[in-house]
Structures
1.
Amino acid sequence: LRHFLTLDGLSRAHLIDILDRAEGFLGIARQAIKKVPLCRGKIIANLFFENSTRTRTTFELAAKRLSADVLNLNVNTSATAKGETLLDTLRNLEAMHVDMFVVRHADSGAAHFIARHTAAHVSVINAGDGRHSHPTQGMLDMFTIRQHKGDFTRLKVAIVGDVLHSRVARSQITALTTLGVEDVRIIAPRTLIPAHAEATFGVTVYHDLRAGVRDVDVVIMLRLQRERMDGGFIPSEQEYFRLFGLTEKRLATAKPDAIVMHPGPINRGVEMDSRVADGPRSVILEQVSNGLAVRMAIMSLCIGAHNFNMNQQDAADE
Ligand code: CP
C-alpha cells in the first residue's frame, strides 16, 4: 500500500489489518512507550491547504512517535501565497528528499492529483479532500466502534447531519459496509442528503431523528459544513437544532448502551446538546486519541515498515 487516498476498493481484510495494526500502536499512542524507530531517517511533510486541528496535530504526533522528521508547511506563509503552483511546491519539497506527503485540500481529488504527479519513492496520505474522502478519519472511527462493540456485522449505525457535504460520512459509509454492517442509516433534512443516496450508498434514509436513531448501537453526528455550501438551502442553526439536534431525550430511543460519536469540530447547540457531547455515552475524545494509533499504523504501512514488532520498540530514543 504506497498511497492511502480513499477507502473505496479496499477489502474487509485490508481494513481489519489496519485496525489490528493500530492496536499494536496503542501503547505508543498512550505514551507507555515513547517512540519506535520505524520511520527513522524518513521525512514526512504535512501539507494542509485547509484548516485542521485534530488531523494535522495527530499526524504530526504520529510521525514523531515513529521517529520521522516532520515538516509542517504553513500554506498562509509559504510561497503558495505568492502564486507558486501546487506542483512546483511538490517539486521543491521532493528536492529536500521528502518521503511522504500528508495532504488536506478543499478540492475533491487533490490528494489523487498529487499522488499521480509525485516521485516514485513518495507516498501520499489523504487527510481530507473536499467533500470526497477522509479515509484516516473513517478508519479511526471504525477502530473506536470496534473497541466498544466488537463485531460489526450485527450493528445498527446512524449517521446524522450534513451528509451531502461530508467527506467523513462517505468514508464512514464505505468502511461500515465493507466491514459488514447491514443497517447503516443516514438522518438529515432532504436538502443535506446526496441524490439517490439509498441506491448509491446502500443506506436507509430518514428525515426524522427520533425514528432514525431507534434501536441503534452507534450514533455519529456531523456538523453543518457551511464552508462547502455553495448557494443551496442553508438552514438556520436554531431551526436545525430544533429538528435534528441530538438531545438526551432524542437519544433515548437508541439502545441503552449506544455510543455517540462526532469527528469534530463540534458546534454545540447546533448538531448536539452539550449534555450529550460531554455525557456518559460520548466517545468523541476517544476518537481523537485513537486517531494517533490509527495514523501511526497507516503511515508505517505506506512507508514500508510492514513488519512492526513490539520488540523493535526504542523506548530509550530521546
Ligand atoms: N475530524 C477532523 O478532520 O477534524 P479537523 O478538521 O480538526 O482535522
2.
Amino acid sequence: MTKPPRMTTSAGAPISDNQNSQTAGERGPVLMQDYQLIEKLAHQNRERIPERVVHAKGWGAYGTLTVTEDISKYTRAAALQKGKQTEMLARFSTVAGELGAADAERDVRGFALKFYTEEGNWDLVGNNTPVFFVRDPLKFPDFIHTQKRHPKTNLRSPTAMWDFWSLSPESLHQVTILMSDRGLPTAPMFMNGYGSHTYSMWNRDGERVWVKFHFKTMQGHKHFTNDEAVQVIGESRETYQEELFGTIDRGEYPKWRVCIQVMTEEQAKQTPYNPFDLTKVWPHGDFPLIDVGVMELNRNAENYFGEIEQAAFSPSNVVPGIGYSPDKMLQARVFSYADAHRYRLGTHYEALPVNQPKCPVHHYHKDGQMNFMGAKTGNVDAYYEPNSFGGAQEDPNVAEPPLPVEGTADRHNHRNGNDDFSQPRALFELFDEGERQRLFSNIAAAMQGVPADIAERQLALFDQVHPEYGAGVRAAL
Ligand code: NDP
Ligand code: HEM
C-alpha cells in the first residue's frame, strides 16, 4: 500500500494530532487557540444545504445519449444529429418526501436529465408520467402544499390531497396514473420517462415543429403493490439507491429508447385538445413515436453530494434547435428552477463541476460570492459589452425562429372548455381487470380518513371518467 497523504488544515498546514483537543492540563478545559477543533466543528455546522423544496430524495448516475436516427429535418441541435454521442447525467426522485424519505413510496418519480452538449447544457426535467396534476402554474405551490406536511399535525394529509384534487378535475389524469401500477415502480430503471411538456424543435432552415420527448424503459416495467412496498420499506428505505448504484457498479447498464412525437404548427391549431396543456397526452395513433436513439446509464458518481445533490437541472437550459412552447407551466418552470438553484446552491451554481458545461462558456456576469472562475468574457479588459477588446459577442445564427402570438392579456380561465375526462377514460380502458382492481384499492387506501363530502366530490369525478371507475372505488371504500 502507498503511504497515505499527510493530513492538513484547510489552509494546508500539516496536522500533528487529530485525536486529542488542546487542553490546559490533562482534564481540560479546551484552549480557544485550538483552531483545528474550531475549524472541524464549524465545518460540520455547515454540512447541510437546503434540500430541494420538491423532489428532495433522489438517485442519479452518468451516462451517454447515442443518436441512431436522422431527425435533422426537425432539429439542428448538435446533440441530436445521427451518430452523435453525448455525455449526460440523470437524477430520479420522488416528489413529496424529504431527503430521508423511503424510496419505495407511491409518488410520481422525477426523471431529470442533463445533456452536456457542444452548444451548452440541455436539461430535460421530466417525470415518469406524461402529464401533470395542474395546468396553470399559479396552482403549483398550492398543489405542493397538499403533498407536504400539515402545518399543525406535521403529518401528510390525505384530506388536503383529495380536497384539492376533487376541486381540480384537471388532476384526474395524473391521479389515475399515480394510483395505477405505474405509481410505484420497483427501481428507476423499470420506468419510462417523459419530457411531459410540449417543447419545440427547429431545423437549419428555421422551420419549427412541436415535440414531446419519451424515454421508454428497455428493462421492462416493474412495480410494487402497496403491500409489497410496506415489506420492502420495512427491510430497507434505500432500495432505489441500492439497486441503481449496484446495477451500474456491476456493469449492467440500464437503457431507455429515446423517442419523440412531432406536431406541426398547422396541426396544433386543429387538435380537439390544447396541445400545450400539460394534463393531456398526444395520442400515439395520431402522433406516432419517432425513434431518436438510446440513453444508457453507465457510471456512478464518485461523490453523491457533489454530483447528485449539487446537480442543478432547469427547463431553462435549452440549446439551439430545441425551444420552449406556449405551455404556461413550462413558462413558469423556466423561471423557477434557476431561482431555486441560486437559493439552494449559490449564485455560481453553474460553475460547480457537475453543472459546468463541457463547451466554452463566455458571459459578462461579474463578481459575487465564491466566484472562483474569474472573468469569462474572453478578455480581461472586456467586462462590459459592446467593447473594443475582443470580448465575447452574440451569434445571430443561433436565433430561434419568431413565434407568432395573439390574443388578449387576461387571466384566462384555464378550465373553460377543457375536457378533463376523455384521456383518463382512454387510460382506464387500457387497464385489464387486475389493474382496475388495484387502482380501486390503491385509491381507497389513499382516501382513508377523508371527510365524506370531499370523498363524494371525488367519486363524482371518477363517475364522469367511467361509471365503472366510480363504482369500483366506491366498492373498495
Ligand atoms: P396507446 O395504447 O397508443 O398508448 C398507451 C400508453 O399508455 C403507452 O405509452 C403505455 O406505455 C402507457 N401505459 C400503459 N399502462 C399505463 C399506466 N398504468 N400508466 C401510465 N401509462 C400507461 O394509447 P394512446 O396514445 O391513445 O393513449 C391512451 C392513454 O394512454 C392516454 O390517455 C394516456 O393516459 C396513456 N398514455 C399515453 C401516452 C401518449 O404519449 N400517448 C404516454 C403514456 C400514457 P408503454 O408503451 O411504456 O407500455
Ligand atoms: C424540482 C418547481 C412542475 C419535475 C423542482 C424544484 C422546483 C420546482 C423549485 C427544485 C429545484 C432544485 O432545487 O434544484 C416547479 C414548478 C412547477 C414544476 C414551479 C410548475 C409550475 C414540474 C413538472 C415536472 C417537474 C411539470 C415534470 C414534468 C421536476 C423534477 C425535479 C423538480 C424532476 C427534480 C430535479 C432534480 O432532480 O434536481 N421543481 N416544478 N416539475 N421538478 Fe418541478
